[in-house]
Amino acid sequence: MTPAARVQAAIDLLDLIIASARDDGAAADTLIARYFRERRYAGSKDRRAVRDVVYRAVRAYGDPPSSGRAAMVGLARADAALAALFDGSAHAPTPLGEAERGPDGSRLPGWTAETFAELVDEAEQETLLDRAPLHVRRNPLRASDADILARWPDARPIEATTYGYALPAGTDVPDDGMAEVQDAGSQLIAQACHATPGLTVLDLCAGAGGKTLALAADMVKDGALAGRLVAADAVRDRLARLTPRAERAGYGGQIEPLLLDSGREEAALKPLVGQCDLVLIDAPCSGSGTWRRNPEARWRLTPARLDRVVALQARLLRLALPLVKPGGRLVYAVCSLIDREGRDQIQQIVRTDTLWQLVHSAGSEQAPGRSWGEGTLLTPAHDGTDGFFFAVLEKPC
To answer: Tell me, which fold does domain 134-394 have in CATH?
Structure first.
């Protein structure tokens, strides 16, 4: 492909991504992979170059552009080398019109401006769209610190995490159980749970089990998981991915998967009422704290979608409270920096359920983050992590 043809390919892909975001269709990565499967003539350099410029455009606009061409025109107006590729040659975009301009607006969705204005300053808002680092969590059952450094000599330990390492971008991480790709923020939340051997622990929104495996690492005694660790989720395909991951990590048969019936979760969870030393709710959310990893998600988030996830989060919290035994803990987390999903949810709990005590942990070298309402806030600029809110509540004996 010529450089100009790559630009036209990026325009075509952006048209697909914009439409898919509007219609809640396939993700950008899926669309890009499908596009190149149908165009075998594109080599690896072509694919990489097109992908890079596509995501450059996606990161540039908080609201979906009107078209792929509009998105690329916006970039070209600030990049003479890119503008020169609008030359009208074979497979290239037609020349830029004098009146053509790119989309206006910030890198955040326009309707969220007031939401983020209170939470983080403009400089921090920009970091929400920076390229994310590569973090891994060492699996103590499969590898020592020396093993990690032998495999990745450039690995750098992440302060305040027990098993975390930062790796150079693009480093290959084999799927062999030695280490799991996991942002440092997720690792810090798992550590805030204080899971220990012998406890009964429920990961209520386990998904594919990233935080479940982090909890398992803290429950190991004599080379095996000690206690009871239940991983629950309402999405069968997502939960099914935990089993092979647990096998590779050395926890085969030791973690209990629990498939929930969405909207009827109480029946499956009834045996756990009053039995859990720890319940973790890593709740479904807007994902606004992970936009640097998935910038296209900004184009999918709407006020109506936010209303739906906020309602779901409140229901999950109410579902979880009775499961915790006296003296036990509930940890609530969202990978979001929108107060309605984090701080406001916990404030509602402490106002209506006065028995619960808050456990604050932010603000020290050992516990990064900032106190935010009744919980802790992690942001890319302040902590080098994805954006998270989490809170730890304890039920008195």
So the answer is: Rossmann fold (3.40.50)
